[in-house]
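ARCHIVE CARD
Drawer: 12
Card no.: 0347
Subject: one protein chain, sequence and derived structure
Cross-reference: see card 0346
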Amino acid sequence: RRCPEEYLLKLELKRYANNTVKTYVIFFEKFINYYKNQDLYTLNETHIRAFIQKMITQRKSNSYINQAINAIKFYYEMVLGMPNRFYEPERPRKEFKLPTVISKEEVLSLIGQTHNLKHRCIVQLLYSSGLRRSELINLKLTDIDSKRMLIRVEGAKGNKDRFTLLSQTVLDNLRLYYKIWKPKCYLFEGKNGGRYSGASVLKVVKTAALQAGIKQKVSPHTLRHSFATHLLEAGTDLRQI
């Protein structure tokens, strides 16, 4: 069963971020297909708790379960208008895990292993600007403000816009990259145009980290955490970070 039209419409009206919409739809479809032979209106709190219990027995993470709960609550509370009456689940305790951070030397080594200029610009931007992977692939040529040395990030997490730092070294490499690759709309584009894929960005980072001999698991988000940590270690005010 596919997600009900009224669910999709409410998400659109609420103007949720694209990633949030995808997550909600995926988890709500998991729920309604768990009870695919029953009408949605016959499902009650008992059914929802049983679905959550099933995820617990499958050893799904707390984050995974909480996302499922949010998607289900959205339907009953926002779409059907039943807040605080139909369903108030016991949420799993929020896990607190320290983020993976690599040293400045490891970052430099990782960048040094990106022999393709496009890949080098990608890794440098993830680190020096603290960008999320989704933010990076959504960057457009017009988002690079070389006069103010800033990068405009539109529709980031929580549908918020912000500015982040643009390094002079990265800007110099971006200018060389532009002359060679000549992207038309997005800063990083695939072979057939359009946005560069998130999977490709992940592959670039993991390959460079492997070649650099970094033992820890490194992802694009690792570079974002490292960016913030290194600023903090350099004495930058936490509120500014």
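Annotation on reverse: The radius of gyration is 21 Å. The beta strands are 144-145, 150-156, 160-165.
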